[in-house]
Amino acid sequence: MIAEDPSLLAEVDTISRTRRCVMLDDATLMPALRRHWEYAGMDDDVSHEIYHDDAVLEFPQSGERFEGVENCREWRRQYPARLEFHTRRITHRDDLVVVENMISYDGAPWMFAVNLLEFRGDKVAHERIYIMDGWEAPEWRVPWRAERAADPPPRHRCSSAIAASK
Questions:
Q1: What Å distances lie between residue 67 and 6, 14, 32, 43, 59, CA to CA?
Q2: Which of 16, 45, 61, 75, CA to CA, is 20 to 30 A from 137?
Q3: Rounded distance, CA 42 to CA 162, Å?
Q4: Which residue has the higher pLDDT, 127 or 12?
Q5: Neighbours of 98 (CB within 10 A)
Q6: Calpha distance 92→96 (Å, rounded)
């Protein structure tokens, strides 16, 4: 049985009652997402054009929640590391976009990042970001796994990575 936090359930219920489902148009969505990651860490005003003024950004792993695009933009301006991004895959259905990225901080090894973006109209209303290290697959799973590998993480600097200097 899963323990459910009543405050989270209330928030989910409120979101589901107030959010209207919109089918995002690839012709406008993809350029906006590319522009967002192109300018991330280099021009915070441009990279935050994708968000509603009242957008919420959460990092479940640290328990942090930032409310309002101004707060999100300002903490990113203060971020002490140089970031590089490499977008691996973008998937979307209706008003939900899942972006699989690789991220490197100050030239450190690449880590996996998943951004869950919930749109309201043509802008992000809620984003959750998960960042984690990759790992070597254990040998005991060999008998069941496919010969073709999933997307392996880059072992070197990605040529398409976007350097963001601070």
A1: 20, 16, 21, 20, 12
A2: 61
A3: 9
A4: 127
A5: 13
A6: 6
> And the tokens for 3?
């323990």
Q: pLDDT value at position 140?
A: 94
What is the pLDDT, as a whole number, of residue 42? Answer: 83
Asked if the model's pLDDT at residue 4 lies above 60, the reply is no
pLDDT tens-digit readout, 79-106: 999 988 889 999 999 899 999 999 999 9
> Within 10 A of 158 (CB to CB), how many other CB atoms are there?
16
In whole angstroms, give the CA distance from residue 115 to residue 42. Answer: 19
* H or E element in which residue 32 lies: helix 26-39
* β-pair type (51-59, 123-132): parallel
Mean pLDDT of 39-45: 87
